Amino acid sequence: MTSNSILRWLKPLTSLKLTIFCLACAMVLVFVGTLDQVHIGIYEAQNRYFKSFFLYFTPPRTTLQIPWFPGGYLIGGLLLINLIAAHASRFKFSWKKAGILLVHSGLILLLVGQLLTGLFQVESQLRLNQGEAKNYSESFYHDELALIDTNATDSDQVVSIPDSKLSRGNKIDLPVESLQLVVNDFYPNSVLINPSQLPSPNYQHLQLGPMAVAARVAKTYKQDERNTPSVNVSVIRNGETVGTWSLASAFPRPVSFQSDGKSYQLVLRPKRYYKPFSVQLVQFSHDRYPGTEIPKNFSSRVRISDPTAGSGRETLIFMNNPLRYRGLTFYQAGFDNNDTTSILQVVKNPSWLLPYISCGVIIFGLLVQFSMHLIGFVRRRVIA
Amino acid sequence: MRKTAYLFCLLTPVFCLLLVSCDNQRIEVYRIPKEKVALENGSPGLVPPAPEAKPAWTKPDGWQTEPLSEMRLGSFKVNGPNGRSVDISVTAFPGDAGGLASNVNRWRGQVLQPSLPEADLEKSIQKSDVNGVECYFVDLQTPENAAKPSRILGAVIPQSDRTWFVKMTGDPTLLEEQRSKFQDFVRSFRFGKPAGELVTPPKTKSTNDKQ
Fold first, then answer.
1. Distance (Å) from the C-alpha of residue B181 to the closest C-alpha of chain A?
2. Does A157 touch chain B (CB under 8 A)?
3. Are A8 and B4 in contact (CB under 8 A)?
4. DSSP run (H or E) holding A206
5. Does the interface ipTM go beyond 0.95?
6. Minimal Cα–Cα distance from B204 to chain A, Å?
């Protein structure tokens, strides 16, 4: 294939019709995604409509997934290629078009930044009771089955299995000690109840103990509700079952077992993101306007203990005043337990600067372009 | 130049595809400092506390049922003349929710009263009984010179795995008229709902909530 034929194939990518088509699809996607968000919540809507290549349709009584509309990644990707290709094919540098060039460069940077944010941003929650210190935050949407090797004296080794791998019948080869995990049953959402509260004896449930079962319930998509899955797993070593346990994320208490003379723990819990420092809640304040229940202010006084930074320091986190530390941002997000528990939102976004830079470039480009037009117009008026 | 740019266009989707196909949901192995965790040995020892079902109660006449919010398991309102009103809330939190003294002092703070030591608080708390379950009543009011007088009638009902709070707050005069209804409401609580209803845990409160 000659280079000219390659260029002929790529020419349609420069078309303005492709730009219009992508923008129209984007409008439809945003509209439909916004409507569906009411039913499935923001997080699920983002994953289905914007962090995907296609929207899928499943015909009744089948498990087929038929793509019927481009998703956010495809539309964004085509727009990015279209923008670059259009510039490449028609690019002739001219000071008169410097502003347009800057605006388009800023747009490209914005699209790339959004892609990187979507891929690499991690949001989690740090839930602290008064006086409690933690060196990890937890995901609100994802859980993990953690196998913990506790044999070392100074540290533990954690094998974290994401909940996406916990489907019924799945066999997982663990990267440690010839152990294999078999998922016998998995409920994406469940509630802990007394066995006497089961609607019927045949209702899907996992026995957690003599007085508690995890009953299967439908997944929730409400923004302020968390899915709490349950799982029944067996640990296998060299073809022999070491043990079988039912675990629930709503009650993340590890079970311990021995295998080949070594001690392990197994727990289903919200996915943890460990940090090289700890945060302690010194005091949570929920101030109300006197005589009313109307909130006036929420704030958390926290103490950061970082072994690499010497002695710890205290700082106040309150509304619109997050803590930025070690590439993480801690926001005051919620509270619980009669104002004795503070919930901080922890955000890690390596590309957080890109939207600011790209907006700055776009604004500068617009100012340059409009200024050139304005100066030209004024000059013509003066001459006339 | 143009060929280079077109080559860039070819590579861009490949690069984006590689990025998107990054598996963020993979098995991870890492080391952490030793953690002190209370654990159970094997499945026979795993006994999570059996959660209590929501109690049944009898709503007094004249109380308007309000929509539930994230923390409220029961919400009512009484409207009086001249725009006066009182608000009644039913909430529950795991364990002792910080203890009786700290919660009564928190309510004292809401009516601009200073906190008291536990020994002094006991004198202002009335111990009672709700269908065989221990219950504590409090009656708190803003100081006499308060710009906006307010009053709280509260009831604290400790259970095996959570503590229930019933609070009536609002205009002091209207609240006094509703006092006996409030006490009848609290005494109507019946714990231990029959099988058939699944209980979900109460939701946490966000700082974005209006109230």
1. 22
2. yes
3. no
4. strand A205-209
5. no
6. 5
Tokens of A205: 């449930």
CA proximity to B89, closest of B65, B114, B58, B111: B65
Which residue in the block uniquely carries the two structure tokens 């194939």? Answer: A9
Q: Which two tokens stand for residue A373?
A: 């037009």
Confidence at A160, pLDDT banded by 50, 70, 90: very high
Segment A256-288, tens digit of pLDDT: 888 888 889 999 999 999 999 999 999 888 877
- Residue pLDDT, tens place only, A65-124: 899 999 998 998 888 888 888 877 776 777 888 888 899 889 889 988 888 888 889 999
Q: What percent of chain A has pLDDT over 90?
A: 41
Q: Would you give the distance in Å from CA A353 to the centre of its chain?
A: 18
Distance of CA B40 to the CA centre of its chain: 29
Widest distance between CA atoms in chain A: 96
What residues does A67 pair with on adjacent strands? A56
Q: Where are the beta strands (DSSP E) in B95-145?
A: 126-130, 133-141
Span B166-187, average pLDDT: 91
β-bridge pairing A240-248 and A230-237: antiparallel
CA angle A192, B130, B108 (to 5 degrees): 90
Rounded Cα distance between A338 and A355, Å, is 38
Can you name the residues that pair with A286 across neighbouring β-strands? A298
Separation in Å, CA of A157 to nearest CA in chain B: 4
pLDDT for the residue numbered A383? 74
The type of residue at A29 is L
Contact (CB, 8 A) for A288 and A261: no
Q: Which residue of B has its CA nearest to A293?
A: B211
**Contact (CB, 8 A) for A46 and A71:** no
> CA-to-CA distance for B35 and B28, rounded, in angstroms?
18
Using alpha carbons only, give the angle A349, A350, A354 rounded to the nearest 5 degrees: 95
- Does A49 lie at the interface with B, CB-CB under 8 angstroms? no
Residue A107, token pair as written in the block: 């747009």
3-class SS of residue A308: helix
Q: How far apart are CA A295 and CA B210, in angstroms?
A: 8
Chain A residues inside the 8 Å CB shell of B26: 162
- Do residues A235 and A242 make contact, with C-beta atoms less than 8 angstroms apart? yes
Question: 3-class SS at B15?
Answer: helix
- Give the pLDDT confidence of B97-151 residue by residue, as tens digits: 777 888 888 888 888 888 888 888 888 888 888 877 889 999 998 888 877 788 8
Q: Which of residues 7-36 of B touch A (CB under 8 A)?
A: 8-10, 12-13, 16, 19-20, 22, 24-35
Distances (CA, A) of B50 to A196, A211, B11, B189, B195: 10, 6, 58, 19, 13
As beta bridge partners, residue A336 has A341
Residue A307, C-beta contacts closer than 8 angstroms, at least 6 positions apart:
A276, A277
Q: Which of B97, B112, B89, B91 is nearest to B182 (CA)?
A: B89
| Alpha carbon distance A196, A213 (integer Å) | 10
| Chain B, window 137-176: residues with a beta carbon less than 8 angstroms from a chain A beta carbon | 142, 146-150, 165, 169
- The residue type of A240 is E
- pTM for the model: 0.67
Measure Cα distances from A136 to A131, A255, A279, A286, B129 in Å.
Answer: 15, 21, 9, 24, 43
